[in-house]
Amino acid sequence: MNDHIGEYVYVVEDEPRVRAVIRKTLEQTGLTVCCFSCADDCLACLDNEECDLLITDIRMPGRDGIELLIEARKLQPWLPVLVVTGFGDVPTAVNALKAGAADFLEKPLDRDILLEAVRRLLSRNTAQKVLFEHSLTRMELRVLCHILEGRNNREIADLLHRSHRTVEVHRRHMMRKLGANNVVELLRQAARLHLFDLGAPAAGAPGTKGPEEKPSRAGDTSERPDEGQ
């Protein structure tokens, strides 16, 4: 996962031991990991801070993982979300995917399967490439993603809790940076940059279940992180 060293992964899990295992596993690959015990703390950071991938449990006190997923994608529509649960079944997976999850894994987690899912989702995240190559701000990218979903300026303003005028300014700057003079040109540019793929569910994700983990060994981060769930 050397290509993704330094990228930010948020982990939301109410079980401290599980958080520690996931953090250690991901940090060993060079990723920067921020952990949260509840959805609200994560959302507060997502409103202002950088994030390349969100990993969340489903059953948690307060907002559950699907509620977090929905709110997170309002703040950062391009953000890939990996949903993990110890209570996974097909209906739960379908609900998560309908809400915009990029992939779905069941506990107990296998270390290699988790890392492969993280690597795949980070590689699919074209938003960061667009940010850097075209000098878009994160707010401009948010506006762009909402435009691609068919929303008008007023609807975008309501979602982002910004004024209509502010959204217009961000939209104008974003279109200038992408070299688009109108919506048709913007859509063509978005297609060229593969932006319509943002947030697309991973194929075969419903009901995906990795093999049981091997018994943990000293210093091995593949321990089963679902105990007590």
Structure in words:
This protein has 229 residues and is an alpha/beta fold. A five-stranded parallel beta sheet has the order 2-1-3-4-5, with helices on both faces. The protein folds into two domains: 2-125, Response regulator (Rossmann fold, 3-Layer(aba) Sandwich); 128-197, Arc Repressor Mutant, subunit A (Orthogonal Bundle). It has helices at residues 16-27, 39-46, 65-75, 90-98, 111-124, 126-134, 138-148, 153-160, 164-177, 183-192; strands at residues 8-12, 32-36, 53-57, 81-85, 103-106. It is globular. The chain is built from ten helices and five strands. The longest helix is centred in the middle third of the chain and has 14 residues, at 111-124. 46% of the residues lie in helices and 10% in strands. Strand 1 (8-12), helix 1 and strand 2 form a beta-alpha-beta unit.
What's the quick description here?
The chain is built from ten helices and five strands, in the order E-H-E-H-E-H-E-H-E-H-H-H-H-H-H. With 229 residues, it is an alpha/beta fold.
